[in-house]
Amino acid sequence: MAEDILIKGLKKGQEEAFSRLLDTYGNKVLQTAFFYLKSRELAQDICQEVLLTVFKEIKNFKGESSLYTWIYRITVNKCYDFSKQKKNQHEILIDMETVAEKDLGQPTDEQVLKKLEQESIRKALQKLDFTYREVIFLFYYQRLKIEEMAEILNCQPGTVKSRLSRGRERLKQILVEEVL
Amino acid sequence: MAERLEQNKNLDELIEDCLIADFSKIKLSESEIKQIKSKLPKKWWQKTIELSKSKALTAGVMGAIIYGYVLAQFVWVSPQDLEANKLNDFYIEQKIGEQVVRISLNSSGGK
Questions:
Q1: A93-180: which CATH topology?
Q2: Is the Cβ pair A100, B21 closer than 8 Å?
Q3: Contact A179, B18 (CB under 8 A)
Q4: Fewest 10 Å CB contacts: which of A87, A152, B20, B83?
Q5: pTM, whole model, 2 decimals?
Q6: Could you read off the pLDDT tens digit of each residue along chain B, which spans 111 residues?
Q7: ipTM of this predicted complex?
Q8: Cα–Cα distance for residue pair A163/A97, rounded to 1 Å
Q9: Is A104 an interface residue toward B (CB < 8 Å)?
Q10: Fold observed for domain A1-91
Q11: What residues of A are in contact with residue B16 (Cβ under 8 Å)?
Q12: Which of B89, B75, B59, B36 is nearest to A44 (CA)?
């Protein structure tokens, strides 16, 4: 319902609706673009481009998918286009250690353990093929459904399911073999 | 951790925690939000207002110049004109009997 109101507002060209779009999807789009491009600056450019495209092209949105899925598809496509331009599509690797915030103060034992766990997962994720890492990011972080991911990635839901399952298995394997 | 990995559910939690820790920090700043908003295409009436504003400003300046020029034509009297028209010759005329007495108010004295 809230999405319908947002779409109507955007179709009318209301600035207020654009502000709501920014509030709701701005950070998600930025984070997704950052995942693909691994640069905060580039991610911000893509984020701006995506949101303005949504505002301009909303008249062509027929509601066949959710607005959420549509925005993600635009984001992912723009990131792929950008990567193709830069010819570094297969070089996308996220060095999350540069992003990870340094905690200040004395951490508790539990915090140290959690940090170690996260570090292991981070390392294992970096070793994972991009195809698997992509579905893992969209599923676990962006909490997208299999059908939505299939629409965004332009493939069958079965393909997404198998990539997710294989990715999870591969991640587990890496954790057991190399990290632990 | 090895124990936790025995169950896929725990692996799911670990992945989620890790991704949240890494990506939730990446947010748009206020200035970035403002910048994006400023790039919004303007509506026709906003463009018209902007155009009208600049047109109104130009028209206002032109009007002020013309008004000032016209006004100056009425108010401004050159010293030559003053001399020619003897506008500086102020006097009072008074009829006393058959005679007209003119009392000049200039420094040169009355006649």
A1: Arc Repressor Mutant, subunit A (1.10.10)
A2: yes
A3: no
A4: A87
A5: 0.67
A6: 555 555 555 788 888 888 888 898 999 999 999 999 888 877 666 667 767 777 888 889 999 999 988 888 777 666 666 666 655 566 677 777 777 777 776 655 444
A7: 0.73
A8: 25
A9: no
A10: Rna Polymerase Sigma Factor; Chain: A (1.10.1740)
A11: 140-141
A12: B36
